[in-house]
From TrEMBL, chain A:
GO terms under cellular component: cytosol
CDD domains: GST_C_Tau, GST_N_Tau
Enzyme class: transferase
GO MF terms, alphabetically ordered: glutathione transferase activity
Name of the molecule in the record: Glutathione S-transferase
Pfam family, one: GST_C_2
Annotated compartments: Cytoplasm, Cytosol
Protein's GO biological process: glutathione metabolic process
InterPro entries referenced in this protein's UniProt entry, alphabetically: Glutathione-S-Trfase_C-like (IPR010987), Glutathione-S-Trfase_C_sf (IPR036282), Glutathione_S-Trfase (IPR040079), Glutathione_S-Trfase_N (IPR004045), GST_C_Tau (IPR045074), Omega/Tau-like (IPR045073), Thioredoxin-like_sf (IPR036249)
UniProtKB/TrEMBL annotation, chain B:
Domain GST C-terminal as annotated: residue spans: 125-252
Molecular function in Gene Ontology: glutathione transferase activity
Keywords: Transferase
Catalytic activity: RX + glutathione = an S-substituted glutathione + a halide anion + H(+)
Family to which this protein belongs: Belongs to the GST superfamily.
Enzyme superclass (EC): transferase
The protein, known as: glutathione transferase
SUPFAM superfamilies: GST C-terminal domain-like, Thioredoxin-like
Any one of the GO CC terms: cytoplasm
Domain GST N-terminal: 40-119
Length: 233, 257
């Protein structure tokens, strides 16, 4: 199909934002060259492709870079619109709702769980864990609203919001292993708990999502490198 | 886009506006909570001094869509607003045939899609759309955070934050190169998203005594300010300058006290 070929993804194995893009590309059935980046020693290619933020993921399509994971996912759905599965729903209101919650996840969930990792005291960690649980409670409502009784946020199969939330699951599992925080309580967020298992079981997730232990190893490396007075399990 | 709603700068901004409104005589119709039946038509829950809310008006007017504007008292939010946006409780919220959408940049994209046969707000090409979304995010995340300190800083500290704000805006300015508007020959998504700078920045400059967008430092942006402010839908919607100036002056005093 026109537009395929010459597709590179600059990524880092445990970045949830990179995982998000890999999921999207999987949904579109697009093949690409994956180039792992060392974020402590950024490559010429990365700095040239994303001079503004110098971050991964960067999708380079026909030599042109696209940055910001949610921007890339939308781009992939638009530029390969005839290919693979649709990531976005067709209805404008449903699209707006999906975008709203995806942005909410990046604004609220990611900082909360990163905060759990970085917390210098038990009190600080507990505070961040509480924040994360508030977010998940809201996402439970969102799931009820969006899924309308179906297995995924997007309905019968995964869509934009599933990817936006789902790419973080392996990190939530890593943090559960390290700090004992339970994110998915079947009593409190039953829909989300069931969805999380279902999501992890998809062929896409099994292919693209790294093991939680990989994230644990990375987190410990970061703690060693930057020094942290919190100890993980 | 989401970051814009939650970054400290915007939060402080809108909360300070809320505080001012308690003493402000300007009042307009306040929607009281009503039945949750689907109502036909378009409603915008906004606030007269909010740059995020005005984006929604610009997008609707570009499409030629009529709407009812509900001016919220941010210190005492209406039941309707809280019902329509329980998650963040913020303005703007668009309610279209009874269905609410929150988050200004998301609302703008929604407007473009819901009235797809009208004026094209988003670029047509997927790569250009990606660029527009990227820059919108950059502006709301980075530029806004860099601009707010200019408002409150003084002396040497102000010089430093002005330089930082200019650095951010210079990066954004790259998206203007060779074009009349960010959208090309006509205003587009990115103009709607960052257009508020054209009106609010000069007010911030006047209130704080700083010069940020100058011909020397940001010539393209300065020129674009003039072109953008001349656009009809923009002219029609801008809040009165004296009121906005007074509001910002008072708030700066309050923040420095």
């Amino acid at each position: 199909m026109a537009g395929e070929g010459d597709i590179k993804l600059l990524g880092m194995v445990v970045s949830p934002f990179v995982v998000r893009v890999r999921m999207a590309l999987h949904r579109k059935g697009v093949s690409y060259e994956y180039v792992e980046q060392d974020l402590f020693n950024k490559s010429e290619l990365l700095l040239r492709s994303n001079p503004v933020n110098k971050k991964v993921p960067v999708l380079i399509h026909g030599g042109k870079p696209i940055c910001e994971s949610l921007v890339i996912v939308q781009y992939a759905d638009e530029v390969w619109s005839g290919k693979g599965a649709s990531i976005f729903p067709a209805d404008p209101h449903e699209r707006a709702v999906a975008r709203f919650w995806a942005a909410y996840v990046d604004d609220k969930l990611f900082p909360a769980y990163i905060g759990i990792m970085k917390a210098a005291t038990e009190e600080a960690r507990a505070e961040k864990a509480k924040e994360a649980l508030v977010v998940l409670a809201n996402l439970e409502e969102a799931f009820a609203q969006c899924s309308k009784g179906k297995p995924f946020f997007a309905g019968d199969s995964v869509g934009y919001l599933d990817l936006a939330v789902g790419c973080n699951l392996f990190w939530l599992e890593a943090i559960r292993k390290m700090f004992g925080v339970t994110f998915f309580d079947v009593g409190k967020t039953p829909l989300l708990a069931a969805w999380a298992e279902r999501f992890a079981g998809t062929e896409m997730a099994r292919e693209v999502v790294p093991d939680a232990d990989t994230a644990v190893v990375f987190a410990k490396k970061l703690q060693a490198r930057f020094g942290s007075n919190t100890s993980a399990k | 886009p989401w970051k814009a709603m939650h970054d400290p700068a915007t939060q402080i901004w809108t909360s300070f506006i809320a505080h001012e409104q308690k003493r402000d005589q300007h009042q307009s119709s306040k929607q009281h909570g009503g039945p949750t039946m689907a109502e036909k038509g378009v409603k915008v829950f906004g606030m007269w001094a909010s740059p995020m809310a005005i984006r929604v008006e610009w997008a609707l007017r570009l499409k030629g869509v009529g709407y009812e504007y509900v001016d919220e008292d941010l210190a005492s939010k209406s039941d309707a607003l809280l019902r329509h946006n329980p998650v963040t409780k913020k303005v703007p919220v668009l309610v279209h045939d009874g269905k609410p959408i929150a988050e200004s940049t998301i609302i703008v994209e929604y407007i473009d899609e819901a009235w797809k046969d009208g004026y094209p707000i988003m670029p047509a090409d997927p790569y250009d759309r990606a660029q527009a979304r990227f820059w919108a995010r950059f502006a709301d995340d980075k530029c806004n955070a860099a601009i707010f300190p200019v408002f409150t800083a003084t002396g040497e500290a102000q010089r430093e934050v002005v330089r930082e704000a200019q650095r951010c805006l210079k990066t954004l300015e790259k998206a203007l190169e060779g074009k009349k508007f960010f959208g090309g020959d006509a205003v587009g998504y990115l103009d709607v998203v960052v257009g508020w700078y054209a009106y609010w920045l000069p007010i911030i400059e006047e209130v704080s005594g700083a010069d940020v967008v100058t011909d020397e430092e940001l010539p393209l942006m300065k020129a674009w300010f003039g072109r953008f402010l001349a656009v009809d839908v923009v002219k029609e919607t801008l809040p009165p300058r004296d009121k906005l100036l007074a509001l910002n002056k008072a708030r700066r005093e309050q923040l420095s006290a």
